[in-house]
Amino acid sequence: MLEFDIAIVGGGLAGSRAAVEIARSDPRLKVALVSKVHPIRSHSVAAQGGIAAALQNVDPNDDWLTHAFDTVKGADYLADQDAVAVLTQQAPQVIIDLEHMGVLFSRLPDGRIAQRPFGGHTNRRTCYAADKTGHAILHELVSRLFQYKVPLFDEWYVLKLIVEEGEAKGLVIYHIPTGRLEVLRAKAILFATGGYGRVFNTTSNDYASTGDGLCLAAMAGIPLQDMEFVQFHPTGLYPVGVLISEAVRGEGAYLVNGEGERFMARYAPSRMELAPRDITSRAIATEIREGRGVNSRYVFLDLRHLGKEKIMERVPFAHDEALRHLGIDVVYEPMPVRPTVHYSMGGIPTTIDCQVLVAHDQPLTGFFAAGECACVSVHGANRLGSNSLLECVVFGARAGATLARYVQERSLPAVDEQRYRAEAERLLQKLIDQPGSERIATLRADFQDTLTDHCSIFRDEALLSEGLAQVQRLKARYQNIRLDDRGKLYNTEIVEALELRSLIEVGEIIVASALQRRESRGAHSRSDYPERNDADYLKHTLAYHTAEGVHIEYRPVDLSLQQKDPERFTPQARKY
Ligand SMILES: Cc1cc2nc3c(=O)[nH]c(=O)nc-3n(C[C@H](O)[C@H](O)[C@H](O)COP(=O)(O)OP(=O)(O)OC[C@H]3O[C@@H](n4cnc5c(N)ncnc54)[C@H](O)[C@@H]3O)c2cc1C
User: Fold this and answer.
1) Most CB atoms within 10 A, among 98, 231, 302, 436?
2) Is the C-beta atom of 204 inside 6 A of ligand 1?
3) What is the mean pLDDT of residues 273-288?
4) What broad class describes the main subcellular location of this protein (predicted)?
């Protein structure tokens, strides 16, 4: 059996930053970093527009409390205000720390880090490296992993989280190239497993964003929080769905409908194209639905007035994406866009020190989560652009510091290696042997279409109920899948089968949570309950996976900044 002080699952921004912090805090600790893709290929590398912090380089009157207010208002008041205070207060320090590590941020003429406007942020506070910010940060962090000699288990797929008697004890991991299984025990485990965009048929997320960590936690009896809040990014390139960064609008691009009108004036007159994403995505969907789209399918994102020089300097990647996918040169032509699934506001509930919470707000011994898979909750019902990279770095570092202290007092838990190994072998052998008739690709496409048709930007009771019934039918079909590859080496079909299990579990929880929240808040927009309802729903959803289906409970929202600044932090109508 493999034995470590700490096992981190995920090598994206959150997992890598945690590993770096542990190595800095106590280099004697034995840490394993397990990742199904090489860490440098984690979705974080694709992040484009930037990372927020009230550095005051461009707007001297910015401060953390204004950043906190923007975040809480953007979240439609569902964010936990204690967590938002940590996020925004620590932001400047983590950016400076990244810069000291060598991250190549774009600069102002005087050499300080440049900052651009972003949706829902009052001030210009988004730091960036052109429109390749995730690439710049992740490369630096991953090179630190090598410098600190953190043992990497890359191309190892975690297929089980071992939880017994209220204690997380270990993992069962599967080596994709060789088919080898190992049981790993550790004094503490950190999940930094990212999002689940692939639950839907059109997403900006990469192929590996299948919500595995969420599924594994749910199957171990841990609740998932606020899963009904799925972020649609307003500008997915039509029809492929790849992301055109908000930085493009931050630099001044217009959204224009089929009638040549800058329609955001109707929805968010004070912010126009830089309204928060939930509002902008609903505006685009409404324009298309009411017949003002272009070819009834999309709207235009128009950069032409920015001029070639600014486009090539500030958003070269967006220029390349439009050219590569559609042959459109945005210097001369507008590009077609429509909303695309982008981000998971919900996730595994944690304390502000990243320890996972189970029923009745009890921390689960030995289990931590950070980054997109966690719900600490700084984004509430809607995340502001450039706050996610920030969350990964702030809470990744915080998780690392907490873990380095936490394991000092803990001994290795006892794990029955034979039992878990045999169980995993049976699971894989059954997948390989079963004579089923369902093709993974077909079932996955049917599932993604179901979620997209029934749990999209606009929802209602009938759509969601039918969606849930369909997901349950798809779950039954999953029992009958068939694999063609029966070998051990690089059996990617096994991984696809396991990922499909994750998608279906997570999808079911999303729909069930959405069905129970009979109000509209942030990204969750119910046509049958169009108003926000604080009296009944200013609370977090907790969804449990059970044999009978999804069981829903609720927990209160932290409103602690309200005492500090009641005028801004008391929930009020959200207008831009
Ligand atoms: C195209 C795009 C652009 C974005 N741009 C921005 C931006 O400009 N600013 C911003 O703030 N946010 C942005 N975001 C959001 C942000 O990038 C992500 O939320 C963030 O990077 C997530 O980081 P993470 O460390 O939580 O997870 P990820 O980077 O997704 O990493 C997940 C890790 O978990 C591992 N893993 C998952 N399942 C398993 C398993 N079963 N076994 C083993 N390993 C597993 C993977 O191998 C991977 O290493 C963007 C997102 C996208 C998709």
Assistant:
1) 231
2) yes
3) 96
4) membrane
| 3-class secondary structure, 553 | strand
Spatial CA neighbour of 173 closest among 163, 164, 185, 160? 160
Q: Which of 198, 277, 398, 526 is catalytic?
A: 277
CATH of region 2-49+130-229+343-409: 3.50.50.60
Instruction: For residue 277, indicate whether it is catalytic.
Output: yes
Q: Contact at 8 Å (CB) between 154 and 38? A: yes
The minimum-distance atom of ligand 1 relative to the CA of 388 is: 11
Burial of 479 (0-12, 13-18, 19+ CB in 10 A): exposed
**Residue 360 clears pLDDT 90, i.e. is over it:** no
- CB burial of 283-313 (b: ≥16 within 10 Å; e: otherwise) equals bbbbbbeeeebbeeebbbbbbeebeeeebee
What is the sign, positive or negative, of the torsion defined by CA atoms of 260, 530, 503, 478?
A: negative
Q: Is residue 134 within 6 Å of ligand 1 at its C-beta? A: yes
Quote the CA–CA distance of 13 and 391 in Å, as a whole number. 9
- According to the CATH classification, is domain 230-342 in 1.10.3730.10? no
- Please report which confidence band the pLDDT of residue 488 belongs to, taking 50, 70 and 90 as the band edges: confident
